[in-house]
Amino acid sequence: MAQATYQITLRLDGNHAVSVSGDDPVAMQDGLAWARGIHLKLTAHDVQQAGGALDDEPPSCVVHDVAMVQVQGKKGPFWSCHEKNDDGSWCSYKPQSRSGVDGAALR
Fold first, then answer.
1. Which domain holds residue 72?
2. Can you point out the beta strands (E) in 45-103?
3. H-helix or E-strand containing 69?
4. 37 contact partners, CB below 8 Å, separation of at least 6
5. Contact present, 47 and 40 (Cβ < 8 Å)
6. Per the confidence metrics, is the pTM higher than 0.70?
7. How many domains is the chain partitioned into structurally?
8. How far apart are CA 55 and CA 76, in angstroms?
9. Greatest Cα pair distance in the chain
10. How far is 36 from 31, CA to CA, in rounded Å?
11. In terms of domains, do 41 and 67 share one?
């Protein structure tokens, strides 16, 4: 019987991690979707605690058609696509901000 292991690491600096491991590819796809959802909730909670607010829905990556994840960078929070391109490189798509300014920053 296939078994999946889920791990959530909460850190004081807000750099939380959610991981899933297992040996069944179908269960892993479900596990990855769950892990992304949990990571989004953790990120939203941290932003709200810091006095910021997320929009109702994260933007979608136009390259991979998935919801983007808000991450905390050196220059502040930004939206990131956590998918890899066909060549193995990470997606570099940056959404246009709702204010019309270059899209990486949420401020």
1. 55-107
2. 69-73, 76-80
3. strand 69-73
4. none
5. no
6. no
7. 2
8. 16
9. 51
10. 9
11. no
Place of tokens 């959610």: 18
Tokens representing 79 are 């939206």
If asked whether residues 100 and 70 sit together in one domain, one would say yes
Three-state secondary-structure class, residue 12: coil
The answer to whether 16 and 8 are in contact (CB under 8 A) is yes
Same domain, 3 and 16: yes
Please report, in tens digits, the pLDDT of each residue of the chain (107 residues total): 678 888 888 887 777 888 888 888 888 888 888 888 888 888 777 666 655 544 557 888 999 989 999 888 888 888 899 999 999 999 999 887 654 433 444 43
Same-domain status, 43 and 4: yes
Q: How far from the centroid of its chain's Cα atoms is residue 19's Cα? A: 12
Q: Do 48 and 77 reside in the same domain of the chain?
A: no
